[in-house]
Amino acid sequence: MPYIDIKNVTYTYPLVKEPCIKDITVSIEKGKFYAIVGANGSGKTTLCNIIRGFIPGFYQGEMKGVVELEGKSLEEYTLGELTSKIGYVFQNPFNQITGARDNVYEEIAYGLENLGVEVEIIRKKVEEVMELTNTAYLADKNPFELSGGQQQRVAFASILALEPDIFVIDEPTSQLDPKETERVFDIIDKMKKMGKTIILVEHKIELIAEYADSIIALEDGRVVKCGEKHDVLSDISLIEKGIALPQTVLLADEFRRRGIPPKEKIITKQEMIWQLKQIMGKSNAPLQA
Amino acid sequence: MAGAVQKDNKIVALYPMTKFYIAIAFAIVAVILPGIISKAICFAALNVLALASGIYKIFAKRVKNSVGVLFIVLVVIQTFFAAGDTILFSFWIFSAKLEGLLFALKLGFVLANIGGCLIWFFAITTEKDFVLALEKKGLSSKASYVVLSTLQMVPVLKKRSETIMNAQRARGVETEGSLLVRAKVFVPTIVPLVLSSIQGTEERALTLEARGFSVETKSTHLYDIEPKPVDKTVTIITGLIFILIVVGRIVLCLI
After folding, report:
1. What is the count of residue pairs from A and B with beta carbons less than 8 Å apart?
2. Which of B129, B154, B160, B211 to mutate against chain A (most A CBs within 10 Å)?
3. Exposed site from A5, A62, A274, B138, fewest CB < 10 Å?
């Protein structure tokens, strides 16, 4: 049984005629890292909102089909259950600061307070996630006075503290510099190693190629390709659908055109280096994961 | 609350609701007491309270800048423009009248007492403590969020408006000069500020949802404050003095 089962979902926003999501059917397995890719306006954020249950609840509009979590429709879950099960990190770091608390420590604890968790447990969890997200040194600072990258890490910490099994993360690095992007992906990698199910929307395709397990490619509200990352990202035809592919895939395609077919589906730099060494006869060692 | 406040001061350390009751009782007493002298005595007592709370400098500065200005304007207008028969002195075409002066002093001391009570209370109580105390008294968590987030947002919006102002200046919009020039820049500053704030509302609402804001469970408080036995004593004494003054005033009216 899939962990999250999206069955024939079509969704239309209020006051709009054309559906934004068109008959999407996707199964998500527990503990895997999924990346949703697609051009702007292809429905990535909307799909995230559907998975989290913000659609149709928060946005209204018309939704057909069903989303099931562990075999139970999302509509059957209470707000508290959904908060504990599915964490959501948004694109804009500033808007993820609730404004309810005047220091980072209490900001991270805010969700746990709302869920009525005992104070001692809150303290323990907050300190754990601060360690994990490297935010302990910001504990006494006002969240509004942090940089975008620091705010994003606080947002991750706030959601991590709730210990959800699933993380829906919508373009978390779009407003961050390369250093902060690296830090955010480091957190995501730690979450993956903790066995969390991750659904990430991201345009930085090289990072997706490196970290994700599976890819859901969208075009105009429809899934155009879904599956293991090598199968999806090595499909050069996705470029025509407005989906960026890693530079290594383009390079491998160029090799193919010049009569040097790569032995494997190559999507990461590491794989390309390995492949080049193979071609040049410098290494017979198997590719290290 | 101002940074210079001594948290170990016994009055400052009282529970927010205790301080709130004192402020409210003080303001009501100042309103119901008759005559200018009794109201002036109340104001003097308020100054003593501010001094005892260790915030006299902050208190005096804020009273001077807010109620003080109002007090002077009131005295000038009422003394020279209110109707009256007893002329104190004349100046050019204006005549200062005793009736107007007495009315202005009475009203001025009422305003000074009410304003002073609020200034004293908020100088020694953080909004965070006050809202938490109100929440414990039954204020909904949604209402307390609105109050706290609004207070948090004020400096953020101020900073953002400065950024917008700089951006407009970089595009050649004149932002300094006469009152008319400043009035003209108001629209190109306020529109992006309001629109960007509205734009962020949806995501912030979802952020709150993702943090269990709407969950109907009794929430816990990581930061907590509780009333001490001294708060009960102070509240009872304040209540007794208040009742005594109110009853005394009613009796005086009836005699």
Report:
1. 109
2. B211
3. B138
| ipTM above threshold 0.85 | no
- Domain-located, residue B203: yes
What pLDDT score was predicted for residue A208? 94
- Closest by Cβ to B218, choosing from A92, A97, A116: A116
Q: Are A200 and A169 in contact (CB under 8 A)?
A: yes
B93 touches chain A (CB under 8 A): no
Answer yes or no: do B188 and B169 share one domain.
yes
* A222/chain B closest Cα distance in angstroms: 24
pLDDT for position B2: 47
Residue B33, CA distances (Å) to B24, B29, B38 in order: 14, 6, 6
User: Which domains are present in chain A?
Assistant: 31-55+76-224 (3.40.50.300), 246-289 (no CATH)
Q: Does A156 touch chain B (CB under 8 A)?
A: no
Distance CA B127, CA B158 (A): 19
- Spans of chain B, pLDDT less than 70: 1-4
Q: How far apart are CA A11 and CA A53, in angstroms?
A: 12
Is residue B226 within 8 angstroms of chain A, CB to CB? Answer: no
The pLDDT of residue A87 is above 90: yes
Domain count for chain B: 2
The strand pairing partners of A177, in sequence order, are none
B143 part of contact set with chain A, CB < 8 Å: no
Over residues A252-263, the pLDDT tens digits come to 888 888 887 776
Percent of chain A scored above 90 by pLDDT?
69
Which member of A58, A106, A115 has the closest CB to residue B223? A106
**B163 in A contact zone (CB under 8 Å):** no
**pLDDT tens digits for A141-179?**
999 999 999 999 999 999 999 999 999 999 999 888 899
Measured between CB atoms, does A115 come within 8 Å of chain B?
A: yes
